[in-house]
Each structure stands twice: as C-alpha cells, then as structure tokens.
Amino acid sequence: MASITPKSKSGAQVLDGSDIRDLVENEEVFSSFVDHKFQQLDRDCDGNLSVRELQPAVADIGAALGLPAQGSSPDSDHFYTEVLNEFTHGKQEKVSKIEFKEVLSDFLLGMAAGLKRDPIVILRIDGEDLLEFLDSPTFQPDATAIFSQIESTVGSLQDYMTKALEQLTVEHGMPPPSDPWVFNNIVKPTLESCSTHQQEQPISQEMFLEEFSKFLKNIAQHLKEEPAIVAHTENTFDGSSIKKLLSNKFELEKALDTTWKDMPKDREGKASKVYLRVALDGMSPAAGLPPYGALEQMDKVVNEVFKMVNAEDSSVVAQDEFKKIMMEILGSIVLQLEGNPISISSNSVVHEPLSSPSVLLPPMSSSSQPSQSE
Predict the structure, then answer these.
(1) Helix axes 74-88, 276-287, angle to 10 degrees
(2) Residues near 123 by beta carbon (within 8 Å), at least 6 away in sequence
(3) Residue 280's pLDDT is what?
(4) What are the helix and strand counts (H, E) for the chain?
(5) Would you say 10 and 129 are in contact if contact means Cβ atoms under 8 Å apart?
(6) 304 Cβ partners below 8 Å, 6+ apart?
(7) pLDDT digit string (tens) for 42-56?
(8) Is the confidence at residue 87, as pLDDT, over 70?
(9) Residue 68: its pLDDT value, please?
C-alpha cells in the first residue's frame, strides 16, 4: 500500500511525537501532568501507588503500544509484568510520585521516539475521497476485480456489498467497516436501504457495478453526515533500524548496558538466558522493533532466531557473554528481515483528540492489514 500523507487526504493531522517530547521537556507542565495522573491513580490518597493502583497506567502503556489487553495473550503478558517491574523495580510494594514521574518520563520519551520514526496520520474521512474514487478511472477496473473475487462465495446483493466493502481501505476513503462504530452508524443503515434482490439467478457483473456504485454513494452521504476519525499508521520492518544501531558503537553499548542493568541476576552477578526475550524487548525501541506479542509475523522471526542461536536454555551468562548473544540475536534478525521484510498497515477509529498524551495513544489493532513480502 502506498504511504498516506496529509497532502493525499483531506483534513489529515500527523502525530510525530513532538507534542509528547514538548510535554516531558517542559518541567512545569510535565510536573502538573504527573500530579494529575498520580492523583487519578492514588485511590487511597496515601501519597504512594500500590501495585493495584498502578495497573490502569500499565494497561494504558500496553494499549498505547498496540498490545492485546492483559490476560488475553500469553505472549504479551510478560511485557505488562516488565512495565510494572519498571515502576516497582521488581520489589517495591509502593511507588512514590518521584519514581512514578521518572518511569513515566522514560516511557513517554520512548513513545515519542517511536512516533518520530513511525508517525501516525489522523484522517477525517467524510465521504469526499470515496466520491473521488467513484468518479476516478480506476473505479470500474477495481470494482470488476472485487466482483471476480467474491462472486462464487456469496448470494444476496447485501452479501455482495458487505464483502466488496471489506476490500476497500482508507486510501479509497473508507474507514474500517469492521469497527463497531463504523458498522452501526455507516454500514448497517446503508445495507438496510440496499435493494433486496433475493435473486433467482446469480448477480451479473453489470448489476454488481451499478449497485456497488449506488451503495458507495450512500456510504459517502452517511460519512458526510457523520465523519469518521481514523488513526492510520504504516511500518516496514526490514532490519535497517537494527543495522543502524549495530553500526553505532556508542548507542549499542549504551542500550546493552542499560538492558543488562535491568536484568535479574544471581549472587554471582550472572543472568539466566530465560530473560533474553525480556532483554530484547528492552532494546526494541533502540532497534526499531515492536514489543514481543504485538506482531505475529515478527514473533515468528524472533522465535526462529532464538532457536538458531541456542538462546532458549536456562543457563546463566555474564555481562560479556550476554552482550555477545544479544548482538548475535540482533544480527540474525537483520538477516531474516532483509530476506523477508514485514510490512503492516493499521487503521483504528478514534473518538477523542489524540494531541494530548494524557490519553496516551489508541491501540493500532482495530483494523490491521499485515503482509510479508515473499
């Protein structure tokens, strides 16, 4: 899919993390922000946050990174545990406001860095782009191709319209039809007004093209009356971000040292290899990788690499060996991604402004279209 830019879509707004960086770097404003969030979380008003009181903040961070809700995916649940451990340092039962502020600052700056690398485009979809698609020379060949894909799988005209709509994207001016708000407010009323051909004979291509055109005009009218706000992001994981990190000795050592420092260790100062996945998650922002559990295709790559480098046993390693293994893991991931880059496009309908990090960010999983090049 081609990249969507503000020039190609009306009313687009780009979230590149600059607002979040400005917030964190303004000490007075950020302190006020932390005071507000801390007060919201501190239910018993004792001036500290318990593990239970921290849970909503941990859930918000996971959602902002596009992870499934805690408890719904074993692969990503460990990430929530690690986020909580960041706040509590793995042992404290209570977290002070100062500690909360420090950790929240780190997460928000990490989020800002991710948005700078992969901005989110906020699209206001009001039917205009859909009408442009209808009037364009590409409508008939595109609609014909859609008809050829679905004609053997559905029967009624409403079935045809529903299946055809699933083939359209925000580039055509269509918000994700699977989103509950879009379906109930835009798709469902249009389907109800659709001609009810309980045909005795199959729908012809000519009939489909005529009815699909009418159907999309009605969709456009509904969108004009109730525009949909969609958060759109595109990303391709091809290993280039990892290669950049590996070539920068200073940044690489910094990331490795920080990750090693946070790993649980035994009395001899060694860490178990069972924590290497957690360590990779710790380096993910610097390496331009999604958290483990957030993207199935990437999880498969990581799993394969861990088997290749024999990083799944429970032996312990010292710091030097840890660094060697992590660089081997990162290098192997680069080789995998260079041969088969992973591209993902996500669209999420949102119902509130996203310019303020007080709501963090919406999960990018409402309508995703991942693909892996062969």
Answers:
(1) 80
(2) 4, 9, 11, 12, 170, 229, 230, 231, 232
(3) 92
(4) 16, 10
(5) yes
(6) 336
(7) 989 999 988 889 888
(8) yes
(9) 65
345 near 1, Cβ under 8 Å?
yes
Residue 211 CA to residue 69 CA, distance in Å, equals: 40
Structure tokens at 31: 């302190």
* Distance (Å, whole) CA 158 – CA 164: 10
Looking at the predicted structure, is the pLDDT value of residue 34 above 70? yes
Give the global pTM. 0.58
Quick one: tokens of 35?
């005071």
CB 170 within 8 A of CB 123: yes
At position 332, the amino acid (one-letter code) is: S
β-bridge partners, 241:
none
Cβ atoms of 228 and 168 within 8 Å: the answer is no
Model confidence pLDDT, tens digit, residues 106-154 = 888 877 777 777 777 888 899 999 999 999 999 999 999 999 888 766 6
Q: Token pair for residue 86?
A: 């960041």
Lowest-confidence segment of 3-17, 157-171, 190-204 by average pLDDT: 3-17
Q: How far is CA 229 from CA 103, 120, 191, 347, 374, in A?
A: 31, 12, 21, 10, 33
Q: Looking at this protein, which amino acid is placed at residue 278?
A: V
State the Cα–Cα distance between residues 323 and 281, nearest whole angstrom. 14
Residues above pLDDT 70, as percent of the chain: 84
Contact 36, 356 (CB under 8 A): no
* In contact, 248 and 293? CB cutoff 8 Å: no
